[in-house]
Every structure is written in C-alpha cells, then in structure tokens.
Amino acid sequence: MSDWKEFTRENKIAYFSMEIGLTAEIPTYSGGLGILAGDTIKSAADLRLPMVAITLAYRKGYFSQKIGPDGWQEEYPVEWKPESLMELLPNKTLVTIEARDVKIQAWLYRVKSPTGGEVPVLFLDTDIPGNADEDRHLTDQLYGGDRAYRLKQEMILGIGGARILDVLGFSVRKYHMNEGHASLLTLELLDRTRRPVEDTWDERFLWDTNWVAQRCVFTTHTPVEAGHDHFSYELVQQVLGEMIPIAMLKDLAGKDELNMTMLALRLSRFVNGVAKKHGEISRTLFPGFEIHAITNGIHPFTWASPYFVHLYDQYLPGWANEPELLVRVDNIPDEEIWDAHYGAKSYLFQYIEEDTGVKLDSGILTLGFARRATAYKRGDLIFSDIERLLKIGEGRLQLVFAGKSHPKDITGKKLIQKIVSHIAPLRDKIKVVYLENYNMDVACRVIPGVDLWLNNPLRPLEASGTSGMKAALNGVPNFSVLDGWWIEGHIEGITGWSIGPPPTESSLDANRSGEDVVDLYNKLEHIIIPLYYDNRPGWIKVMKNAIGKNAYYFNTHVMMRRYVTEAYLR
Predict the structure, then answer these.
(1) Are residues 352 and 470 in the same domain?
(2) Is residue 564 part of a domain?
(3) Which of 25, 42, 514, 539 has its CA 20 to 30 A from that of 532?
(4) Measured between alpha carbons, how far is 114 from 302 in angstroms, rounded to an integer?
(5) Does residue 495 have a pLDDT over 80?
(6) Rounded to whole angstroms, how far apart are CA atoms 310 and 86?
(7) pLDDT-based confidence at 514, cuts 50/70/90?
(8) Rounded Cα–Cα distance for residues 95 and 53 (Å)
(9) Is the pLDDT of residue 151 over 90?
(10) Is residue 202 predicted with pLDDT exceeding 50?
C-alpha cells in the first residue's frame, strides 16, 4: 500500500458531500445526491484529476428498509465498521460544538481506476475516546436526529473537513460544495482571512469575502424547499458560537435564519444547477445570483450491467473511459443488443423470485420505477385509474417498484403503502412487485433488467435525475415527464417518450397531474405497448438510440470535464 502522504504532493480540488455512495458495503448514502458524488469521484479517478473528497463515516448508515405485511416501511440500522474497509489516518482536528472541543479523525478510502488515477476519500468520524458520549454519536447516522444534530454534523463536515485537510497537509486549489450541507466551510475560510484594524474606539477586524469566493464552487441540487437547510440563529449561536459577528453572518446567510444555500451562494465565485432547466429555476429562486448549469451524469462502468459491459468491450473497446464511443452503438448487431438485455432481465427476475417469491414473465413488457419515495415523485401515478390500467395492461404489463422514504416522511411512507396495496388486487391481471431496501446493489439489478424506465415527478421539482441515465446506458428507454435531464435527452419516439405537456413551468406550484395521467395511459396503449410486441426491430432501434444519443453524453466523464474547464480553472 502506498504512503497516503503521496496525496498531499499537489494542489487538490476538495469535494465536500454530506453523503457519498461508492459501494453498497459503505452505506453512507441515501439516494441520488450520494450516488452522484460517488460517480463524480470515480470519474475523477478515471480522468486522473487531482481531487480529495470529504464526507462523514456514518457507522449506522442511512437505514435498512423492511416493508411490513400492511405495506408500512420499517427502518433498521445498517451497522458497518470503517476499520474493516479503510485506513485510519494519524492526524486529528478539533471543532468547538456547544463550547465543547470535539475531536475528529479521518478514515481513508482509496478510489482506484484502471487508468492509474486514484482519489482519496476522507470519512470523518467523532467516535473517539475522550469525546463526550453524545459527541461520539454525532457521525452515527445520515440524516438522523433533530435540527441541532444536523447542524452539528454540518459543522463537522464543513469546518472539520477544512481543518482536517490542513492538518493532514493537503494544499487545496478549490473547495467544491456538493449541495449546501458543507457551507460552513466558508466561515472557516473566512476566519482565516481575519485581519485586525485599529481605530480610536476599539479593535475591529476585516474579513476578505472575495478571497473565500475565489476558492469556492457550489452546486445546488434541488428546487424543493426541504432540500435547502436552514437553522434559527438562536440554535446557531448555541451550537456554533460566533465564528464571525452575527450581524455579518446575517448579511451573508439571511436576515431571519441561517440559510445554508444562501451562505454558499454569497461566498462562491462559481455556482451551478444540475440541468439546464434546474439552472433556470434556480435563477428564479435566487434572483441576483449568476447560476450556471452543468448537467449531472453517471459513471459508465459502475452502472453498465455485466451483459452490456461484455458487449461494449467487444464492439466499442475503450468505451468505459471514453463513453463518447457509445455513439457508435449501431456497430453492434440488433440481436446481440437484445440478448444482452434479455440476460439483464433474466438476472433481475431471478432476484425478484428469490426476494419476493413472485415469478415474473420475461416475455411481458416490464416497467421499472425506483427512486426515493416522496410525494413529488408521484410513484403511484400509474394507478390513478385502475380500470383504464387494466384495459391497457392486463396480461401485457408488469411493474417493478423500489425505493425508501425518509423515516420522518409520513407522506412518503403512505405512498409506499398505497403502491403495495395494489399488489394483491392486481395479482392475476398485472403483476406488481415492491423490492425492499433499495441500494446500489439492487439498483444494478433493477435498472438494466426492466424494459422501460418510468419517471413522473411534478414539474419542475426534478432538478436532474440520474436513474434514467443509468437506464439509457443499458438500452432501457425512458418514459418520463419533461423535467431535469430528460428535457435535454428526450427526442420523442427516438430516445424514449415524454409524459405530459412541454416544460414551460417556472413556478414551483405548477401541477398538471390530470394531463400527465391521460398522456401516460394514451402513450402506453397506442404507442409503447404496440411497438414492444409488434415491432421488435423498432423497439431495439429506440434502445440503441438511448445508448447512442443519451448515454454517450450524460455521464460523469463529460460532466467532470465541464467542471474542470468552467469551475475549477476559473
């Protein structure tokens, strides 16, 4: 094993993320944000970019999901041991929380690429002898606890992360905040610029906000209010204290409460949303700020099923590190595309039978819907008119669902329960399964194994969405509302199909569910089902277009090259 100090020999991009999903055995992610972070790091390694990543070592993970007999989600801890997978680094740092010094240590995980690139990921941990018992549990659980617990975690990530990089000897060129959770690092950087200024009355200080902004990049991921953390100033003063004068903090982060997104916006030179539409919505949400758009991507090698990896290796050698080669997908014979898909489908169906006891029919058109269970994702939309669904799909459709709801999201849990409630009544007509404990391993089975990827969020609340990109990489066409990345990837009937009207909304309150449901049923009945069953060459053409017109571009290699040229080198 090489000396970890080798990582400190050149200037780095320091990438901060509250959650990072690298493998299922490191359960420090809940969904899209963490998976995007993991894919970003993997592409950085492939491209040999000088990056170091910082997150927390959640010893109890997010949670393991069980669906009870009544369809209600139950949560259990995911216990894992950083010491079994990572190397403990020798240096520690301190953060003062509620006037107590809290020690922070870092576990090193190395993300290695076949290209020779390697990115160190630092998992911060407060479970250290000498810390107060309550402080030892601060890095236990992702998105757990109350507001104070969340603020303490964000102090550990932002302030502790910046300090641990210093004590370990890292030299940082840019600090990239993946969402607002890490925004407190700007206060740590600001504190480093403090200079005394004498006048006749008292001693005051100057802070160089421009110096901080030049070093910070901020990516905002959500137009949903719940995605923007905010804390009362009473709580901030109790937990954080006064790193800078409270009046100055209010100028930077909001008059009434500390808004982490606003703090990052004010102290970052480069800010971006994660799709063109999301950049537009973000500029509406935060007028006066220059907000760019860099569309998210996925890491090609991670998300291609083994069946397609084999196929791409044979016909498009080098594709994993040059995904633009996927544009040549027409070099692959149709029957081999179909065989690879059929292999992925059979692999999924075997897993479903082992997990649920339900035996699906590989000859039937299978729709997949797997993502976080929350109201705006509208996971139950396809069940809006059961009579119409049966008329369209009896004997011709199968539905595969998966996804977790946040433990405190009662509406999300009710959504899961509602979907599960349809399984028994529809059993002899349309088979429906809900897979428990959706994680990276389950996703790697579900996404390539279905025939059509369904996505129907309320516009314009889907900032980007990356599951559809994973589907396209595996030749699974998208059937999606025109929001997020799909606005850019969609060519009707060519790369997949849209649901509902064009994406003209600029308001977050728009709701056109009625139109969406009608369009969903009409396209299933009159276009998608006939194409699948009656025109196999036509269906395979759409599969190939998904690969050659979507997957070649919507990946983290393309995304990272844009971050380098537009954000990191500015």
Answers:
(1) yes
(2) no
(3) 514
(4) 13
(5) yes
(6) 31
(7) confident
(8) 19
(9) yes
(10) no
* Exposure letters 20-58 (e unless 16+ CB within 10 A, then b): bbbbeebbbbbbbbbbbbbbbbbbbbbbebbbbbbbbbb
Q: How far apart are CA 564 and CA 120, in angstroms?
A: 18
pLDDT digits (tens, 9 = 90+) for 114-125: 999 999 999 999
SS3 281: helix
- How many Å apart are CA 193 and CA 95, to the nearest integer? 18
Give 291's contacts (C-beta < 8 A, 6+ positions apart): 220, 271, 272, 273, 279, 282, 283
- Domain's final residue, options 217, 252, 268: 268
Q: Please list the alpha-helical segments (H only) found in 243-333.
A: 246-253, 260-266, 276-285, 300-303, 306-315
User: How far is residue 72 CA from its own chain's centroid?
Assistant: 25
Residue that terminates a domain, selected from 227, 252, 268: 268
Q: Please tell me whether residues 326 and 243 are part of one structural domain.
A: no
* Domain carrying residue 372: 300-558
Cβ burial, residue 200 (10 Å; 0-12/13-18/19+): exposed
What number of other Cβ atoms are within 10 A of residue 462's Cβ? 29
* Residue 562 exposed, middle or buried by CB count within 10 Å (0-12, 13-18, 19+): middle
d(CA 472, CA 300): 11
| Helix, strand, coil % in the chain, rounded to nearest 5 | 45, 20, 35
> What is the per-residue pLDDT for 543?
98
Q: Does any domain span residue 286?
A: no
d(CA 29, CA 40): 14
Residue with tokens 């009896």: 394
Upstream peptide bond of 306 is cis (omega within 30 degrees of 0) = no
Q: Determine if the pTM surpasses 0.90.
A: yes
Give the CATH number of the domain where residue 348 resides: 3.40.50.2000
Mean pLDDT of 226-244: 91
CA R_g for the chain: 24
pLDDT of residue 276: 96
